Amino acid sequence: MEQAFTSMRLKVTVLLLITSHLTAEAMQITSTGPQTIQKAKGESVNLGCTYTPGAQDTGELDIEWSNVSPDMTQKDTLILAYSGGQIHRYGDPSVSKRIQFIGSPQQGDASITFSDLKPYDTATYQCKVKKTPGVDMRKVTLVVMAPPSVPKCWVEGGEEKGGTVSLRCKSSHGSAPLRYVWRRESGGVIPSTATQDAQSGELLIKNHTDSNVGSYVCEASNAVGKAECKYSLHAYNPTDKVGVIVGAVIGALLLLLLLLLLIWLLVCCCHKRRYEKEVANELREDVQAPESRPTSRQSSLRSVMGYRTHPGVLYSSVRKDLPTIGESGYIYTVGDNGSTTAENAPASRNYDHKYGYPV
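The chain above was modelled as a monomer; its predicted structure follows.
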């Protein structure tokens, strides 16, 4: 029984030796380092992939760098390859042109450098080295992050003595998670009664006193960068809140009275205008329109026809009957009432071109 057990142990030892020997002789990637790398946007990163082929690996060298799909049912995206002594690029040119081999792929270094990183470069990348019959691969996850922007520091509420002061800090840009830490730059250490929240960036100081006055600094940070802002904290005497409230109420009442007075004045003005308009209309109805005079009608006619009047010349209305000259030398004129008037005829006249009528 003991001999059988010894024989079994010997067989297992031989098998382990053979297995380790074969493993040592097979293709093996020797790069070490973190499996996850975090880098800031715009920076460069090296993804290591050094390898050692086995003694029996005599086939053609084939190296592939792929973007591993998070969906196991989808194929990986090939971005860079080395085969037949040539470098081949695949996929989006805006990505592949920023990837280069660091060393000589055929000399055991398939590491690459990734420049000008973009947020969409975040992915898991796989290096696969194959030299028949040996093959090995290595995966590394790249996370491209944005550093925090310069935060804004402010205080919520007042800075009155005896009250609660809330110092706030916030960055508008930056990849999560962001962490905020307050420290006191001048005036001593942060009060023991103060509490701060690293996630929201709030520093809460209770029972504010003059001893808390000073300059405070808030630092916002993540895995790839940090930025800070400052705030100068003061301590003011508390305001008379009752007086402020009373003053506000009185001011509101005065404003309301002024508004009512303005409305009353507008109403009175409207009533006055309406009354004056009604009186003017009544006066127009009571006054009789004046009769038109013949001379005014004649003047209007002359102005329309473009005639010019001349001093010393008598113009007669065209509406009246024109006078007639009889054989006796008298001028007979028929009046409005039908009566006939005889007048001596004037001496004969000659046409004057200057005035445009006989003179």
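The chain is about 25% helix and 30% strand.
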